[in-house]
Q: What sequence folds into this?
């Protein structure tokens, strides 16, 4: 997977219209976006289909899927039918639940990203003690793509060591949450950035500044 400028835009905006307005200005410098609950709960999975059709970009659906295998399969099926290229899946629910998403993704020619440790402070409360085990589980399952935190680079480095250099690691937490783009890219293949771009008065300039600050 080649992510243009190593930046994945998190489109956590309330309407498809707003997402389109942002993408009209930024799409030249991006080929991958992440769409999650904020947009899909407001506008439906059609928002995924629309963004995909309009810009031809890769769409990662951030639904942090965390249910029993039978329900995960239905969630994954609907997501890929809407046009998603990849789906972010929680690992803490266990191998069977993640495997259900992986199998469904493969059936559709799509991919999953396994979420290991999250970037917010609360991740230290319950998730952190098991996040490296989640990464190990992913390796055992043959999963290629992972999500890890840019807010704790010592932990991101450990995740990279577990999953190996050939795996693909994307990292949220850059900007508003405190992570640094270039430092994160020492361990991650691409960074996920949302508010630092779409809340800026000048999103084009905000994106360009991040691109300028990283070694591509
Ligand atoms: O651990 C995670 N942290 C995180 O921020 C896993 C995520 N998927 N995210 C998502 O990344 C979060 O939901 C948001 O869509 C994006 C980061 O956005 P921002 O902090 O750059 O605005």
A:
């Amino acid at each position: 997977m080649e992510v243009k400028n190593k930046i994945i835009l998190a489109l956590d905006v309330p309407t498809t219209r707003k997402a389109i307005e942002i993408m009209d200005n930024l799409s030249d410098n991006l080929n991958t976006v992440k769409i999650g609950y904020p947009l899909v709960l407001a506008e439906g999975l059609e928002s995924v289909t629309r963004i995909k059709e309009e810009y031809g970009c890769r769409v990662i659906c951030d639904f942090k899927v965390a249910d029993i295998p039978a329900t995960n399969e239905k969630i994954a099926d609907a997501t890929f039918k809407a046009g998603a290229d990849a789906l972010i899946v929680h690992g803490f629910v266990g191998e069977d639940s993640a495997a259900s998403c992986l199998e469904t993704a493969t059936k559709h020619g799509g991919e999953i990203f396994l979420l290991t440790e999250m970037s917010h402070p609360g991740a230290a409360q319950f998730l952190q003690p098991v996040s490296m085990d989640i990464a190990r589980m992913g390796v055992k399952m043959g999963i290629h793509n992972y999500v890890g935190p840019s807010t704790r680079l010592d932990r991101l480095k450990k995740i990279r060591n577990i999953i190996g250099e050939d795996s693909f690691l994307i990292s949220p937490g850059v900007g508003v949450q405190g992570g640094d783009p270039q430092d994160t890219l020492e361990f991650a293949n691409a960074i996920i950035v949302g508010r630092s771009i779409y809340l800026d008065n000048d999103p084009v300039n905000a994106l360009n500044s991040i691109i300028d600050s990283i070694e591509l």
Residues 4-213 form a domain with the TIM Barrel fold (CATH 3.20.20.70).
